[in-house]
Amino acid sequence: MATVELRFSALPEHVRTARLVAAAVARRAGVDESVLDEVRLAVGEACSRAVGLHQRGAAHGAIRVALIEQEKRFLIEVADEAGDASLPSPASGESADPGEDALGLAVISGLVEDVEVTNGGEGGLIRMSWPVSTAPVAV
Fold it and tell me: InterPro entries this protein is in (predicted)?
């Protein structure tokens, strides 16, 4: 089980890098070529959501993207340290936009069959997975 982990500060310019790395690792793990655009889009949406939560909540932690190659699945976890996303931000005086958050999660759910979203006091986690082919992948 191989794992690649990215950690980056909550800046929009890092989302593109996360998308590109996720697609490259997914290809190498054996995710079907026809699904790679979905992987790229889902990771971009999950990372953009995490960046938005950090910025709205003035959180200082990092965003973590774990790319995990399992025997029959390719798993991606996007974790934020933005705290409870449903709480208003004391720094900005704003509350999280539930419509914007719901739209982002709907896009992810439309792209990924196997998705799990959790949120707690420390932050949130989006876990997504795709099947991998059993044929070896050329490097």
Answer: Anti-sigma-factor_SerPK, HATPase_C_sf, HATPase_dom
**Residue 96 falls in which region: left (phi positive, over 0), alpha (psi -120 to 50) or beta:** beta
DSSP per-residue string spanning 121-137: SS-EEEEEEEEB-SSPP
Which domains occur in the chain, in start order?
2-131 (3.30.565.10)
Does residue 14 carry a pLDDT above 70? yes
Q: What is the pTM of this model?
A: 0.83
Count of other CB atoms within 10 angstroms of residue 117 = 15
Strand partners, 114: 129
What tokens were used for 63?
């965003």
CA distances from 97 to 7, 43, 61 (A): 25, 20, 20
List, for residues 75-93, the tens digit of each pLDDT value: 999 999 887 754 444 444 4
